Amino acid sequence: MAEILKNTLETEEDILKDRYLIFFLANENYGIEVRHVTEIIGMQAITDIPELPEYVKGIINLRGKIIPVMDVRLRFKKEPKEYTDRTCIIVVDIGSIPLGLVVDGVSEVITIPESDIVPPPNINKDYMNRYIKNIGKVGKEVKLLLDCTRLLTESELEDITQVL
Known about the structure:
Blueprint (H helix, E strand, L loop, with lengths): L1 H15 L2 E7 L2 E6 L3 E6 L13 E7 L2 E7 H4 L12 E7 L2 E7 L1 E7 L5 E2 L13 E7 L2 E6 L7 H10 L1
């Protein structure tokens, strides 16, 4: 029985290996490793929580589970944009904490082989570069691959969990 479970887990890891959920903000494409993604939901009412950073829009109740929601556009210091019917929330797990990421839209799930992934250029380690783990080459395009664990600092995560 243990061998079957081990094989099943290895098969699941193989299926998720090199798989990325591609989403967009304005004209830029980003990717998140599929293994971090719990689900994708449409926009819904977000309850505002006072004294959280501007990019943390509040919380949602998703089937009885309270989930903090962050607007990735604001986190990346981009111009705010009104939500449309394409805007959605990607629910990811950061450690043991679920987090909703508001994005302009989701386009696809793709496989990017390790051979087509390179580290980001070491130009400037400003706020944006700390979120980018790698760059995926897909045909003539590039996808900025995010490190979900760096979207919030430890103290920001702590602040949010205290609210919950």
